[in-house]
Amino acid sequence: xxxxxxxxxxxxxxxxxxxxxxxxxxxxxxxxxxxxxxxxxxxxxxxxxxxxxxxxxxxxxxxxxxxxxxxxxxxxxxxxxxxxxxxxxxxxxxxxxxxxxxxxxxxxxxxxxxxxxxxxxxxxxxxxxxxxxxxxxxxxxxxxxxxxxxxxxxxxxxxxxxxxxxxxxxxxxxxxxxxxxxxxxxxxxxxxxxxxxxxxxxxxxxxxxxxxxxxxxxxxxxxxxxxxxxxxxxxxxxxxxxxxxxxxxxxxxxxxxxxxxxxxxxxxxxxxxxxxxxxxxxxxxxxxxxxxxxxxxxxxxxxxxxxxxxxxxxxxxx
Length: 318
Fold this sequence. Notes:
CATH topology of the largest domain: L-2-Hydroxyisocaproate Dehydrogenase, Chain A, domain 2
Strand content: 15-25%
Strand order of the largest sheet: 3-2-1-4-5-6
Number of domains: 2
CATH superfamily of the largest domain: Lactate dehydrogenase/glycoside hydrolase, family 4, C-terminal
Low-confidence stretches: none
Number of strands: 14
Structural class: alpha/beta
Order of helices and strands: EHEHEEHEHEHEEEEEHHHHEEEH
CATH architecture of the largest domain: Alpha-Beta Complex
Distance between the termini: 44 Å
Number of helices: 10
């Protein structure tokens, strides 16, 4: 008898979705990948194109264009569908538009008999993850948003670049809304176990404003990229593959995903970017960082902005 294989269902094959599928194939993360999109021609073309790369892939992956019935046996559904952020538009501007789209999508996923984990990447990701949780009826641990994984990656890249250290040896987090109210946790940022404040003492020509500039470049990165090429997709696609690996590989990896808070950080009934332990069951636990007073205030502000923005959406969730 054949053993059970991992199946990922990708819903939405736009810039982010197709980049995710390409990165997934290149890293050989799953045995099956089904592409689902309202634009059938595009998804069929993507499936053909990806299959033609299989001779160069690290492992065999079965890839096909399908429909919502294929979600029934999926271990993970990745949601990248929805309206894109336009130049001059914030992630929060997309909220009502994409909540309405997601109500139908999640209904179709769940009616297939799906009983796995849903990973949400569409913006505004924190609010849409909350909406997916409500629409799906799944346990909160099995609905995860991409949160601040990309912001954290950008932060680590820029810190590594600034101190001339491999970005993989930088341990630092961006938490909060994936958007304008996110914040850097400098109080817990380190390189190879040595705090950032210690590293700055040996940095020739260091100015405190440099660290603030690094954060501003992280926070505003999407706007800069959108103005130059219309959309961001490579970084987030690789971040989604990282979360996929943590789930399918039962890794217990700590990633800054959008997780449901139920008292952690003094907050309730909100999905927001925080470090969390991710494994085959979804979110095993939220990691509570001991924030300093300024960080606590900024995090509380981020929560309040998200909750305020969610108010007009709540009517869709009933």
